[in-house]
Amino acid sequence: MIKIWSMKKNEDAAAKKRPKTSAAQIRVQKDLTELDLPSTMKTTFSDPADLLNFSLTISPDEGMYKGGAFVFSFVINNNYPHEPPKVKCMQRIYHPNVDLEGNVCLNILREDWKPVLNLNSVMVGLQYLFLEPNADDPLNKEAAEELRKNRDQFLYNVKASMRGGSIKGVQYDRVSLQ
Amino acid sequence: MLQNESQDIEAATATLQAQPDSKTRRYDRQLRLWAASGQAALEAARILVTSGSATSTSVLKNLVLPGIGHFTILDASTTAPADAGNNFFLNADASIGKPRAAEAVPLLRELNDSVDGVADVRDLAALLDTPEGRQFVAGFSLVIAHNLPKTTVEKLADLLWQDPLYPPLMVVRSAGFLADFYIQFHEHCVIESHSETAPALRLTKPFPALQAWADSTDYDTLDPTEHAHIPFVIILIKEADKWRAEHNGALPKAYAEQKAFKAAVLARQKKLDEENFEEAEAQAVRLWTEKGVPSDVQALLDLPALAPDASPNVAFHALLQTLRAFVSDPAGPGTLPLTATLPDMKTDTESYVRLQWQYKEQARVENVRFKELLRATHPDVSIDDALADAFVKNAHHIKLLRGRPFGAFARDAAALASALDMAPKETLTHLGLNALSAVLERSAEVTPEALTAEIQAAVGAGVVLPEDELENVVEELARAPTADLPNTAAFLGGMLAQEAIKMVTKQYVPVNGYCVVDLIGSTTGVVGAV
Amino acid sequence: MATTTISNGAAIAQDWPGRYYHVDQVLDRPGPRTDESFLAGEGVKDFLRNKCKILVIGAGGLGCEILANLALSGFKDIHVIDMDTIDISNLNRQFLFRPKDVGKPKATVAAAFIMSRVPGVKVTPYYGKIQDKDDDYYLQFNLVICGLDSVEARRWINATLVNLVDPENPESLKPLIDGGTEGFKGQARVILPTISSCYECSLDMLNKPTAFPICTIANTPRLPEHCIEWASVLEWPRVHGDKKLDTDDPEHIGWLYKIASARAQEFKIEGVTWSLTQGVVKNIIPAIASTNAIIAASCCNEAFKIATSSAAYLNNYFMLIGTDGVYSFTFEHEKRADCPVCGGEAVDMTISKELTVDKFIETLIERQDIQIKKPSLSSGSKHIYFQAPQQLEEATRPNLEKTVSELVDDGGEITVTASSLPFSLSLRIHYS
């Protein structure tokens, strides 16, 4: 065998054994403990020992969705950050960029994900959807149509849906804090 | 699912394909590279391999697996203990003393039932001395020769160079960690080169329907959603028109102008993050890089034609001449024919499908015009529609390689001098392998000194050779002059098979020149290309 | 999971004279680029043929080739791990398998084939996951060669071998040779864990998997792929609920194909086929025997050179593109200082058994050589103290009062993350 060990002695920086924790685990620890979230966002761990599964509650304090509390599930696998976290909305909500199954249209969750992004970027991106819903590339077409054509009606629908009302035959979950 | 919705699906999908048959499933991973046309070409190929060495059977393994039609191993030798040790396609020590070709063929054939394989125990050198033998060798579609004696390989190469209709010859030589290989062909034409560069979209010379669409698009009358979905193609045509109007008909040239153009595109956005405008900015480079005829295709159009009836590529040359006529046709677009393939872009379904339809329609019109020209200029050449269609579709990426006889490089003092300068290591390895064949041919002892003397004689006494590179080559060759190492054999087996597949399918682009392999440094390099 | 071991202990044949005529030419004498430590002749042959133990991960396209090359090169104690069974689409390149083997475990069939073809070579298969095996298992090998198609498995074995390196034990450093192919392209690399650039260091060189915006799939499909993704990402879960999509089940593919075709027709999109549907949902990468042969040969050649010192080895990355002529590029990929696996610092700390976590953190912050602010600490899967988020801070706060020795064994490791660190810091704790 080649004499690798003799090369090793010259490499002092890397000369120590490392802990048995996966790169994904350490990265999630780093992402979570360095989260810089406004008071409108809060994470909840159903099992604090499990960093890979948790939820995020967004309670916008401005914009059309003010007064609601929106819950998203985060599922992170061991291929993080090569793969993005899987995020779904846990409630049925009336929003142009969230469909009735809870799928969310946010570029950095799919096509624009890259490993230099982190959980903070995803969370900030989600909150932005509630401040500036995007009607141009919708998932809930009817909601988007309403937002484009009749902003007042859209706002009315948002408020009604947040109280658990139904719009065009679809019953939405109550997400109002009041 | 609602009932009427499901009925719609049933009605819409009544003509769907069933799950593919077992042959398609077996070949699925390769059909994604060369499709049914490439597979058919492979299945029609008859390949002659002139020995049953480890390198030879490695090449064959990689050709039998994807399903070539036929192979013959031509090998008069019996299996030596050394063969039984380094060749996976022999029955180990049980094969010792038995004909090597006959031992290898069944073990290769069992890799793929649909491949025909034959062991031929005649002697190649003797065959090359008879007209029947020469005819036999010339009757294959490709010949592959590993570590043949010097005079035999020269005879073989001479024979196969005599007629452009004779098969291409792949010559591979190896010793220990060093090797080279060469494909001898007069000319090799490729329609489907699978180039990864995008075909032109005619943004600087839009066809009428496209221009009309751009002209009729008024940013200000569109609602915000429509505005955010104008295809970048339309945006760029409009912006280019505007720029030309303001710049005496010229497009942006200097870097500063290009920057200004891009800024103008972005300034068209009505709100932040309109992705179609961002895409237009990113694609603006097409306006100053897209040519009506790309320079490498122009070089082919300018090539002097070979004597037409002596070429196996009559059809390709007829198509090439037609392409020349198409480009210079005053009634035509003055460019290569349009390709219907449209890249994906940020727009809505309706606009995209409409745009795609317009490109298809224009491509169809130009394809018809191309075929009219073809029939008018080449009434006697029979070219089926599928071939002409493939040519038109791939006109941006066609390739034509012209080659030289095996060994011509080493006789070309000017080419050698320049190669020694540009790629000393590769050139010396090639010359070293030449020297090794010469020394082995006269049954002399292979020493660094003997090899150095041969190399020096080949380049001329006055040429100063780089000392370190020379020493590395001759000492390494003298260390293992006859070693067909299992890993080197497997490496070359893969390389040669890749090239054989490219030659046979006429897809992708084979190497032109001597590919030199150094498995100590783990490098490859090409020298002696025309 | 069953462990199958085929042993041919009694059957180890005598090497016939001349068996290694070819290989011995490079083992009997050094070349101009051979390291001085090379033990030409019997010494190196004895190590290669009687002592060296090598692990092959993956018995697929690369794995089959790797096993055959190693066996012919003179490696006689080979282990192979693969969790897959043989599929008909493997037969165009995985040359140790025949149609009758479809459905059987790759590792077992490949091992049996090699042993029947190359006498005297022992191949020990394991049909299962690499994650089933512990450090002691990996420690028994001199070298590891990987022919995998999964990023996740590669990251795992890479991190495992880096973590295995023990400063007290030279034998713990296992060279890792990794190969990969796609169509006419491929790469081979040599990783000397903790010494040269590791797999994680180059993670950003990977092509990212194609993903389409979900709103495009839902509302503005343009390509056949968009229709197929609609069927698999949105329609499958909507219609089938929790039933998992099995991309190997032709009925499932058939259903997706039907749904995608109907959608394509509705939007006047052309080009949805069975083959494309399967390609998109399984993320199929084209694969051919010849490219696998090149890359596997390159990997085995490096393994041979490293095991024998008979010639210089690859430093450290070989990339091949065979689509347009033969183009290859050999270069040294640089180690990344902030690599989560092999980068960052490791520091030995000796502390009192009585030191509380709270005081320990203060000590860390005060250390001039580390320069750390607001550190969060864990040890393996145990959270020691997290600065945020609030719930995790509260959950770990009681640990501040505990002594470090209650939470971490002597010689144990603590992983520290902090925004002031490039990635993380590991501390090896000893008690005075």
From TrEMBL, chain A:
Q: Which CDD domains match?
A: UBCc_UBE2F_UBE2M (cd23794)
The UniProt record lists the UBC core domain at: 23-167
Enzyme Commission number(s) from the entry: 2.3.2.34
Active site at C105
Gene3D superfamilies annotated for this entry? Ubiquitin Conjugating Enzyme (3.10.110.10)
> Which pathway does UniProt place it in?
Protein modification; protein neddylation
The record lists the catalysed reaction(s) as:
[E1 NEDD8-activating enzyme]-S-[NEDD8 protein]-yl-L-cysteine + [E2 NEDD8-conjugating enzyme]-L-cysteine = [E1 NEDD8-activating enzyme]-L-cysteine + [E2 NEDD8-conjugating enzyme]-S-[NEDD8-protein]-yl-L-cysteine
Q: Which InterPro entries match?
A: Ub_conjugating_enzyme (IPR050113), UBC (IPR000608), UBQ-conjugating_AS (IPR023313), UBQ-conjugating_enzyme/RWD (IPR016135)
Coiled-coil intervals, chain numbering: none
A GO molecular function held by the record: ATP binding
Its keywords, alphabetically, are: ATP-binding, Nucleotide-binding, Transferase, Ubl conjugation pathway
UniProt record similarity statement: Belongs to the ubiquitin-conjugating enzyme family.
Q: List the protein's name.
A: NEDD8-conjugating enzyme UBC12
UniProtKB/TrEMBL annotation, chain B:
What is this organism's lineage?
Eukaryota, Fungi, Dikarya, Basidiomycota, Agaricomycotina
Q: Does the keyword Ribonucleoprotein apply?
A: no
Protein family: Belongs to the ubiquitin-activating E1 family. ULA1 subfamily.
Give me the ranges of the annotated region Disordered: 1-23
**GO BP term (any one):** protein neddylation
Q: Which positions carry the signal peptide feature in this UniProt record?
A: none
Superkingdom: Eukaryota
**Which keywords are on file for this protein?**
Ubl conjugation pathway
Q: Which GO terms describe its cellular component?
A: cytoplasm
Task of the protein:
Regulatory subunit of the dimeric UBA3-ULA1 E1 enzyme.
This protein's pathway reads: Protein modification; protein neddylation
InterPro entries to which the protein is assigned, alphabetical: APP-BP1, ThiF/MoeB/HesA, Ubiquitin-activating_enz
A GO molecular function assigned to this protein is: NEDD8 activating enzyme activity
Q: What is this protein called?
A: NEDD8-activating enzyme E1 regulatory subunit
TrEMBL record, chain C:
PROSITE patterns referenced in this protein's UniProt entry, alphabetically: UBIQUITIN_ACTIVAT_2
Record-annotated active site: C215 (glycyl thioester intermediate)
**Single GO cellular component term:** cytoplasm
All residue ranges annotated as the E2 binding domain in the record:
349-432
Which domain of life does the UniProt lineage start with? Eukaryota
Instruction: Cite the entry's keywords alphabetically.
Output: ATP-binding, Ligase, Nucleotide-binding, Ubl conjugation pathway
Broad EC category: ligase
Quote the Pfam families the UniProt record gives: E2_bind, ThiF
Catalytic activity of the protein: ATP + [NEDD8 protein] + [E1 NEDD8-activating enzyme]-L-cysteine = AMP + diphosphate + [E1 NEDD8-activating enzyme]-S-[NEDD8 protein]-yl-L-cysteine
GO terms, biological process = protein neddylation
Cited InterPro entries: E2-binding, ThiF/MoeB/HesA, ThiF_NAD_FAD-bd, Ub_act_enz_dom_a_sf, Uba3_N, Ubiquitin-activating_enz, UBQ-activ_enz_E1_Cys_AS
Q: Entry's Gene3D superfamilies?
A: NAD(P)-binding Rossmann-like Domain (3.40.50.720), Ubiquitin activating enzymes (Uba3). Chain: B, domain 2 (1.10.10.520), Ubiquitin-like 2 activating enzyme e1b. Chain: B, domain 3 (3.10.290.20)
Q: What is its EC number?
A: 6.2.1.64
Keyword Hydrolase set for record: no
- Pathway per the UniProt entry: Protein modification; protein neddylation
Q: Tell me a Gene Ontology molecular-function term this record carries.
A: ATP binding
Family of the protein in this entry: Belongs to the ubiquitin-activating E1 family. UBA3 subfamily.
Please describe what this protein does.
Catalytic subunit of the dimeric E1 enzyme, which activates NEDD8.
Q: What is this protein called?
A: NEDD8-activating enzyme E1 catalytic subunit
Species name for this entry?
A: Phlebiopsis gigantea (strain 11061_1 CR5-6)
